[in-house]
Amino acid sequence: MNRIVFISKKAVELFILFFLILTVLFFLFRLAPGDPVTRMVDPMLTPEDAAHIIEQMGLDKPLTTQYMIYVKNFFTGNFGFSFHYGEPVARVIMARLPCTLLLFTTSTLLAALAGVFLGKISAWKKGSRMDGVLSISALVCHTLFVPWFALMMLWMLGFQVGWFPLGGIISPELWIEDAPFGLKVLDVIHHMILPLLTLFIIHVGSYLLLMRSSMLSVLKEDYILTARAKGLTDRVIRNRHAAKNAALPVVTSVGLSLAFSINGGALTEQIFTWPGIGRELIFAVSNNDYPLAQGCFLLIAAVVLSANFIVDLLYAWLDPRIHY
Known about the structure:
Structural class: mainly alpha
Distance between the termini: 5 Å
Radius of gyration: 24 Å
Number of strands: 0
Helix content: over 70%
Order of helices and strands: HHHHHHHHHHHHHHH
CATH superfamily of the domain at 100-318: MetI-like
CATH topology of the domain at 100-318: MetI-like fold
CATH class of the domain at 100-318: Mainly Alpha
Strand content: under 5%
């Protein structure tokens, strides 16, 4: 199939799927129990004032009318106003997005690089003591219960030892006093180390096991035997011939992990009080802030769909046998 035709068909499919997600999210939130007014106003508010607020939010209109307005606003770049913050949803999301990208993209890339390197070493030394240690360690990391492990890391390294802050992304006193820029950067890094280390340990095992499994399969291929027959060194065979093809499933996993990192790992952000998209998403859903919750979910959906599309294209670049 011609690449242009493939890209065009894929783009149409993604647009239709995204529109379906948009529709489902709209009705799903409005059919959920509760309403934003009872959570955001004084319980002593008179029924007349409450009705006025509902009218201002547009929640007094029929669902179909609300839906048509929402779709029209969405495709004109208007994501609505957060019921809680009283600000445009786009502004609230953009204020939280850099924190999420900083932490989760960094942890995903570091875990992927370490997992790929250790995975190919483990597969190359299959059956050795090193392979056993790496495989068992990876299984332990892969099966860790995320909330429990995050709380243990916070308790041990934050509370008991006191090496790291117990939460947040900055020390307010440094920023209020307008400390030097370099000191502020170090302060952010200091706050980020503990959640970064937690996420790294949790994810590195899955990448290691995936790379090891893929590498073992590739090492059985005929072209590996041919490379050995040519007298190529083990290092060249492992890194240039085997590892590149073995990385195909890892690329898919990393691409999707980076996409899903946009949601910030809601539980992780909540435990470390990291001010990102995931923590904001929990707040929006629990407080029936429809526009903000929809905006967060739609951002996640758009990034995940785009990541799938990019991974499909990367496959053809990594493996010449794949054509579109």
